[in-house]
């Protein structure tokens, strides 16, 4: 059981961590990084699996299944798209910026 | 004896997997923020994701494992296929789509928990959920649902399905009223025993607000808006992670929430715009460039 204050400490430290790792990102990486962080919150899949895994009755199963389907789309799609964007950064030098603007 | 050792250590081993996953996410994002290491970063995060998902399948007391695997296989397969074949220039809307799905998933988890609490309340039970968990579940649904419908509109606009900006008189007031309705219904869920009808109304109001908030924003500003919804989804995931007592979701969600907020500001700055101008610019006199 995560106590309320422990959760607040986790929130605080994780928020600083998130802020710090992005602080010096070059403009060329804005879109790939957005895509990368989009993949990372695909971890919601774990929660969706837990929900469906503890579903009790048709309504529960339906909501849990929707959660799993949406979350799996987030995780898998997020990974594929991020990997494709970052393929352009092949060498040790910044490559093309095709994925930069929509 | 052997089974006893397994039941005692398996939950701890799974939590250790979540810890390693959280570490890999942070290191992966760190690598993704530098051009030299960016490419490997996504692989690090991917390994963390795989580890967390496989560990979750081993959680004791899980039912419907077949349905879980089926859902992941079908949705994951479709996402894989769509992500591989999309043109490089269409990437931003795919990010919007997948991000919206994540927000929707977080909202669905919150609704799942609230429906469970409503069932307990209907049977005369009290304290179906701890107060902090209840508040965060409601907040997670609100934020996740706004991110879901908002991201879908962003996707539709960038895909070219919605060329016109959608503006009508009194729109801003109307939007605020819808948001207020969602907040009031959320408050009712927190302070009164949760009821199914209130949950449904709350979810619909939150979805409507995300829709209405995104409709007036022009296509050129969409990358900034998608980044904002990305941060919001992260926050919603973190809140629902607290409800489920899942450390990996709390840490990954919060990291993305904070990183995404900063990234949104950086992107707006790179366009010489303020975030407020992007979100509400179409209402003012200096309406920005339409697509």
TrEMBL record, chain A:
A GO cellular-component term linked to this record: plasma membrane
GO terms assigned for molecular function: NADP binding; oxidoreductase activity; proton-translocating NAD(P)+ transhydrogenase activity
Keyword Protein biosynthesis among UniProt keywords: no
Top EC class of this enzyme: translocase
GO biological process, alphabetically ordered: NADPH regeneration
Keyword Transmembrane attached: yes
Subcellular location: Cell inner membrane
Signal peptide extent: none
Major site of localization recorded for this protein: membrane
Catalytic activity: NAD(+) + NADPH + H(+)(in) = NADH + NADP(+) + H(+)(out)
Top-level taxon in the UniProt lineage: Bacteria
Membrane topology value: Multi-pass membrane protein
E.C. code: 7.1.1.1
Keywords assigned: Cell inner membrane, Cell membrane, Membrane, NAD, NADP, Oxidoreductase, Translocase, Transmembrane, Transmembrane helix
InterPro entries: NADP_transhyd_a_C (IPR024605)
Residue span, NAD(P) transhydrogenase alpha subunit C-terminal domain: 8-90
Stretches that traverse the bilayer: 6-27, 61-81
Protein's job: The transhydrogenation between NADH and NADP is coupled to respiration and ATP hydrolysis and functions as a proton pump across the membrane.
UniProt-listed PANTHER family: NAD(P) TRANSHYDROGENASE, PROTON-TRANSLOCATING NAD(P)(+) TRANSHYDROGENASE
Record protein name field: proton-translocating NAD(P)(+) transhydrogenase
Top-level taxonomy: Bacteria, Pseudomonadati, Pseudomonadota, Gammaproteobacteria, Lysobacterales
